[in-house]
Amino acid sequence: MARVFWRSRALLGLLLLLLLGALAATSCGKQRGGTAAAANQYRPGMVARTEEGLFSIAFTSEPGPPRMGMNTLTLQISDTAAAPVSGAFIKVSPYMPAHGHGSNSQPAIFETAPGLYRAELVELQMMGHWTITVTVNTIESSDAATFDFEVQ
Q1: How many other C-beta atoms can be found within 10 angstroms of the C-beta atom of residue 54?
Q2: Which one of 45, 61, 104, 123 is most buried, by most CB atoms within 10 A?
Q3: Within 10 A of 129 (CB to CB), how many other CB atoms are there?
Q4: Strand ranges of the sheet holding 69-79, from the earlier edge strand across to the other edge
Q5: How is 36-70 classified by DSSP, letter by letter?
Q6: How far apart are CA 120 and CA 34, in angstroms?
Q7: Across-strand partners of 48?
Q8: Nearest-CA neighbor of 86 among 50, 140, 44?
Q9: Does an H or E element contain 74, and which?
């Protein structure tokens, strides 16, 4: 009788370890569909060209580098002639690739000077690799650029 008891306890312990191992293997630290992507090192004023090459976006965060919690972004947006892009509708979309989720809040974005936009309430709710996609919509065109970095 005691032997059966200990065997069932050992089997239960083994099943528990296997379950914990499976949970660890599918945890947040792993990129969906493969290995984790490498994040860029944040630099104030880091610049990205949009996917179609229509705009250039300089990105700065307060605090810098971006941290877990609420952040404020300053975005300097210019066209191919380096002229400020004024009056555009800007969308800022934080996304954590390893977890497959975005942010819990919607950033408030407004233009403070020609081509200079401020995005407030940009929430990065956990540490790890994040991307922020900035979409620029004007009357004539739409294009987007993505910045990626580690949040500490």
Answers
A1: 18
A2: 61
A3: 20
A4: 46-49, 55-62, 69-79, 116-124, 108-113
A5: PPPPBPP-TTEEEE-TTSSEEEEEEEESSS--SEE
A6: 33
A7: 57
A8: 140
A9: strand 69-79
pTM of the full predicted structure?
0.75
Written as six digits, the tokens of 21 are: 């191992």
For residues 18 and 20, give the distance between their C-alpha atoms in angstroms, rounded to a whole number.
5
Retrieve residue 10's tokens.
């050992």
In the numeric block, which tokens belong to residue 108? 């408030």
Structure tokens at 64: 């810098």
Give the percent of the chain with pLDDT over 70.
74
Distances (CA, A) of 138 to 26, 76, 97, 141: 41, 15, 28, 5
Q: Please write the tens of the pLDDT for every residue from 96-142.
A: 999 999 998 999 999 999 999 999 999 999 999 999 999 999 999 99
Give the mean pLDDT of the chain: 82
Q: How confident is the model at residue 8 (pLDDT cuts 50, 70, 90)?
A: low
Give the per-residue pLDDT at 39.
60
Structure tokens given for 141? 């065109």
Q: What is residue 77's DSSP assignment?
A: E
- Residues 72, 75, 81: CA angle, nearest 5 degrees: 180
